[in-house]
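User: Hey, quick favor. My workstation is busy. Could you predict this chain's structure for me?
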Amino acid sequence: MPPRILAYSATAEFRHDSIEASIEALKAKESALDVKFDFTEDKSKFTDENLSQYDAILFLNNSGIVLDDTGKAALQNYFNLGGNFLAIHCAAAALRDSPFFGRQIGAYFDYHPEIQESAVDVLDKTHPSTVMLPDKWHLLDEMYNFESDPRAVGAKILLTADESSYQDPEAKEKTLRHGSPHPIGENGVPGVDSHGIAGRSWFTGLGHCIEIWSDDLFLGHVMGGIKWVLQSKTTKAFNANGNVGNAS
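Assistant: No problem, here it is.
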């Protein structure tokens, strides 16, 4: 059976108007990816029993504290059992009260300049989520700044924002803490306890606009991230001894 992915798009603060477009875009890619998405904004779905059937969990432009204590504990346990994780754009502004989630993301969102034409540099052309991208990728999107450097927790940076390609007036008045070059997409560090089984974690800071969810390069980027996390082979879709995932 195909891997199952729980795509969670609940918001408690700012809500992106691209969420609906992103859901439709991902639904359209189920066959090409050979996966089954379950889309929800219901935090009650985050229980040990329910999460155990998924090979990956995707946080899709969430914001704020979108899980209660029960849900956070279930998500942490899912990661400890080898579950995989993907996060897109504003998910970096979710669950700021949960350090294990911060490790999964790599770094929390700080602020962004106005949306404008920008350029992104590809640091790793071999990764499934970047192999289709040009060395310098020009696109209309938000270039997030982050509260810390994801490299400090061991994240591998895949994409960086070319700060010379766009205007960020606030940067002159701030101390930017995300390091250099400016991270905008990475393999995160599984937020597992010391006894846990590490799956894979992937984050892209891109994905703000409605239009980008019909862009073939961006969709290839996201699809490559999905394929890469599932290749962890820590879940039942690919490992009969996995603790979580779709075995039916």
